[in-house]
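User: quick one, sequence for these tokens?
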């Protein structure tokens, strides 16, 4: 099937870090892409092949033009939960498949089982999708490297470390000496590597 013959995939969160990568991957695979954005000016840097639609997850009826004729949606939820049920119902009415970027709320590790409103939101959207006739793929990644800078890189404000503020990483050389016994006696290995701290 040529690119013009296959129906497009709609990408929400299209101008963000994740959505932008999804768009590139789809285009590389020869899939036509539609981008949903709340601010059309933010889509100016998208490839010319991408069809841009203005819409907002908080206004579900605004999604209809972008959904009409699409085959699938990459759903990255970027809104409060109150419109989630109506948005999912609109997806079911227009497309065959949804790929939802969720979070690892089912991972048994204690780190992912702490009270977390975002995990609750994602679990609720997963339940909404499961109750439809949509084909679905649920992606539950752990911590994304692109987000970790914003979450953990510290900034100093009034003498305190403030999470969520990014600071340039400092490069340093570290030398680690480890000793381990061997059949020939005691051996020592020294590893020198480039490290990044923040």
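Assistant:
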């Amino acid at each position: 099937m040529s690119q013009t013959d296959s129906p497009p995939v709609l990408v929400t969160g299209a101008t963000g870090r994740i959505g932008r990568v999804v768009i590139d991957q789809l285009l590389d695979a020869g899939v036509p892409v539609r981008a949903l954005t709340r601010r059309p000016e933010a889509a100016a840097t998208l490839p010319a092949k991408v069809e841009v639609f203005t819409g907002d997850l908080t206004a579900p009826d605004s999604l209809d033009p972008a959904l009409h004729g699409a085959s699938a949606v990459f759903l990255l939820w970027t809104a409060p939960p109150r419109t989630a049920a109506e948005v999912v119902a609109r997806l079911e009415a227009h497309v065959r498949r949804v790929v939802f970027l969720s979070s690892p709320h089912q991972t048994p590790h204690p780190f992912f089982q702490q009270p977390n409103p975002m995990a609750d939101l994602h679990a609720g959207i997963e339940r909404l999708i499961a109750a439809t006739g949509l084909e679905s793929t649920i992606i539950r990644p752990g911590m994304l490297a692109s987000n970790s800078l914003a979450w953990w890189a510290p900034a100093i404000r009034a003498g305190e470390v403030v999470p969520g503020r990014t600071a340039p990483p400092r490069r340093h050389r570290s030398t680690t000496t480890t000793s381990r016994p061997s059949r020939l006696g005691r051996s020592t290995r020294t590893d020198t590597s480039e490290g990044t701290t923040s």
